[in-house]
Design a protein that fits this description.
heterodimer, A: mainly alpha, B: 421 residues, alpha/beta, OB fold (Dihydrolipoamide Acetyltransferase, E2P), Rossmann fold, 4 domains, five-stranded mixed beta barrel, five-stranded parallel β-sheet, 12 helices, rod-shaped
Chain lengths: 88, 421
C-alpha cells in the first residue's frame, strides 16, 4: 500500500505481523523488477531489518505456563458473581 | 330423580350436575408433563398431558396461538390451570391458562431469547469481531481444571508453536457457580496487559451442561472484553451464545490453536522465502545496473576510439581495464554506482569534447596545408603532360617535354624550353 521509500524515522514495526506485512511489501516491490539499484539497496536493508525483527520475536517466545484457579482470582468489586434472574 | 318401586333412579343430568358441584372451587396448579395429541377444536386447542398416566386438557385457541414458544407434540411443558368437569360428556379436563416450555425446551427458549436480545443490541455484529494478533505475547486460557479440553488445547498449542506462553485459569465450567467464575477469569485475563488473546475452552455436552456459556453475564463479559476472545465451546453442533459474541468461534482445540498461534514451521519457511527473495531482488537490480554500466562502458570505448584522441592500440589496452573496473564498482559498492556513473558520464563527455576540439584544430591545420590553399596564394603545380605526375624538380626535365601547369583557376598546357638546374 505504501511505496517502498527509504524508511523515515520512527518507522519501527510494533508487532510481529506488522513486521511480516512490511517484509511482504518489500519482497513484492523487489520482485516487481521495477526498482533501480539505489532503491533495491534501501529495500534490501529494510527487508533485513524486518527479517531480524521477526526472527527476534520468534526467538524470544518461550514456552511457559502460569496456572491460576478461582481462588487466585482477585475478588470482583461489588461481588458481581451472581447470575441475574432469568428473564421469565 | 324419580322413584320406581323402592328404587331411586337418577337422570344423567342429575349425576353430572352432582359431579360438577364436586369439582367446583378447586384451586389452579402447575403440572409438568409432555404435550401429546394437539388438536384444534373450534375455539379451543385440545391436547393430552402425558406423564405415566394421561390427563385431557384444553386451552383457549387464541391464547395458545399467541404463546411465545408454542409446544409441539412431545414437548415438555409446565401448564398452569385447574380441573374442570364437562357435564355434557361427563369428562374431566384440565383448563390450561398458562403454558410454558420446561426442561430442554425451556433452556432452548432462554438461549433464543438471550441471543435475540444481544443481537438486537448489536453484540453479534460481524463488524465488532476483532482478529487476534498473529503472534500473541501471552495467551489467556479459561477452562475447567480437570477437563480434557484443557490438555487438548495446550497440546495442540505447543505442537503448533512450541514457544507459546500461556496464562491458564481453571474454573468450573458448569453448575450454578460457573458463570460468575468464568466472568471473573475473563475479566482478570482481560486486565493483564501482556495477554493478547483469550481462549475460552470447554468440551461438548448437553444443552444443560453448556448453559454457563449461554448465560447473560458470561456473554456480556466476552462482548465487553478489550482483548480478542476465541470461543472453543462444545462441538460443531453445540452453538452457544458465547460462541456468537466471541471474536472467533471454533469447534475444536486444534482450530483454537490455529487461530491463536502461527505454525512455527510455516512462519520460519515464510521468513526464509522472504530472505531469499530480497537477496535475489537485490542481485537482480545489481545485475541490471551492471548491464547498464557495461553498455555505457562500451559506448565510452567506442567514443574514445572514434575520437582518435588516444591511439587505437592504447584504447584497446585500456578498454578491458575500464570495463572490469566498472564491474568491480558495480559488485562492491552498488550504491555508489549512480554517483560513479554520473562522474564517468561527465568525464567521457569532457574527453569527447576535448577530442572534438582537437579534431577541429587538426582540420584547420589540414586546411591550411591543402594544395588548394597554396594555389590560392599564387603558387602553381607543374605536372607531366602525359602521365600527370607532379614534377617537383627541374632535374631530368628535357627540352621539348610537354607540361601542364595547374593554377588556382585552371590549367595551361606548356612545353619546356631550356631546363637549367
Amino acid at each position: 500500500m505504501t511505496d517502498a521509500r527509504p524508511p523515515a524515522g520512527g518507522d519501527e514495526p510494533v508487532t510481529f505481523e506488522e513486521a511480516l506485512r512490511r517484509l511482504d511489501e518489500v519482497v513484492s516491490r523487489l520482485e516487481s523488477g521495477e526498482v533501480g539499484l539505489e532503491e533495491a539497496v534501501a529495500l534490501f536493508e529494510r527487508g533485513q531489518g524486518y527479517l531480524a525483527a521477526c526472527r527476534e520475536r520468534l526467538g524470544a517466545a518461550q514456552r511457559r505456563i502460569e496456572e491460576l484457579t478461582a481462588e487466585d482470582l482477585p475478588p470482583e468489586p461489588g461481588g458481581g458473581a451472581q447470575e441475574p434472574p432469568a428473564p421469565f | 330423580m324419580r322413584l320406581v318401586g323402592d328404587r331411586r333412579v337418577f337422570t344423567v343430568e342429575d349425576v353430572t350436575a352432582r359431579l360438577s358441584g364436586m369439582f367446583e372451587g378447586l384451586k389452579s396448579f402447575w403440572v409438568e408433563a409432555e404435550v401429546q395429541d394437539l388438536r384444534p377444536a373450534r375455539t379451543q386447542m385440545r391436547f393430552t398431558l402425558r406423564g405415566e398416566h394421561v390427563l385431557d386438557a384444553s386451552m383457549n385457541g387464541i391464547v395458545f396461538d399467541r404463546l411465545p414458544h408454542r409446544p409441539a407434540n412431545g414437548t415438555l411443558v409446565q401448564a398452569y390451570g385447574r380441573i374442570e368437569f364437562w357435564r355434557q360428556r361427563g369428562q374431566i379436563s384440565m383448563r390450561v391458562e398458562k403454558l410454558e416450555l420446561a426442561g430442554e425446551g425451556l433452556l432452548r427458549a432462554r438461549v433464543d431469547e438471550l441471543r435475540a436480545r444481544l443481537e438486537g443490541e448489536g453484540l453479534l455484529d460481524p463488524g465488532r469481531k476483532r482478529r487476534p494478533p498473529m503472534l500473541p505475547r501471552r495467551i489467556g486460557l479459561v477452562t475447567s481444571p480437570d477437563g480434557a479440553a484443557r490438555d487438548d488445547v495446550l497440546t495442540t498449542l505447543w505442537a503448533r508453536f512450541p514457544g507459546a506462553d500461556v496464562v491458564l485459569v481453571s474454573v468450573p465450567v458448569q453448575g450454578d457457580a460457573a458463570p460468575g467464575l468464568i466472568v471473573r477469569a475473563l475479566r482478570h485475563l482481560d486486565r493483564r496487559p501482556d495477554v493478547d488473546v483469550i481462549v475460552v475452552a470447554r468440551g461438548g455436552g448437553s444443552l444443560e451442561d453448556l448453559m454457563a456459556f449461554n448465560s447473560e453475564t458470561v456473554c456480556r463479559a466476552v462482548a465487553a472484553a478489550a482483548t480478542p476472545v476465541v470461543s472453543a465451546v462444545g462441538h460443531e453442533r453445540d452453538v452457544t451464545v458465547c460462541d456468537l459474541v466471541a471474536d472467533v468461534r471454533v469447534s475444536t482445540p486444534t482450530a483454537a490453536a490455529a487461530v491463536v498461534v502461527p505454525s512455527l514451521e510455516a512462519v520460519e519457511a515464510r521468513l526464509d522465502d522472504a530472505s531469499l527473495a530480497i537477496r535475489r531482488g537485490l542481485e537482480r537490480a545489481g545485475a541490471a545496473a551492471g548491464r547498464a554500466v557495461e553498455r555505457r562502458a562500451d559506448a565510452l570505448v567506442r567514443a574514445l576510439r572514434g575520437s582518435g584522441a588516444l591511439g587505437r592500440d592504447r584504447v584497446d589496452r585500456l578498454a578491458p581495464r575500464l570495463t572490469s573496473a566498472l564491474r568491480r564498482v558495480g559488485a562492491t559498492a552498488p550504491a555508489e554506482l549512480a554517483v560513479r556513473r554520473e562522474a564517468l558520464r561527465r568525464a567521457a563527455g569532457l574527453r569527447a569534447e576535448a577530442a572534438a576540439g582537437r579534431l577541429e584544430r587538426s582540420a584547420g591545420l589540414l586546411g591550411l596545408l591543402s594544395p588548394e590553399r597554396t594555389l590560392a596564394r599564387g603558387y602553381a603545380i607543374v605536372r607531366d603532360g602525359g602521365s600527370g605526375a607532379v614534377i617537383a624538380s627541374a632535374e631530368g626535365v628535357e627540352a621539348g617535354r610537354s607540361l601542364v601547369i595547374g593554377m588556382r583557376d585552371g590549367r595551361i598546357a606548356a612545353r619546356a624550353e631550356e631546363p637549367s638546374p
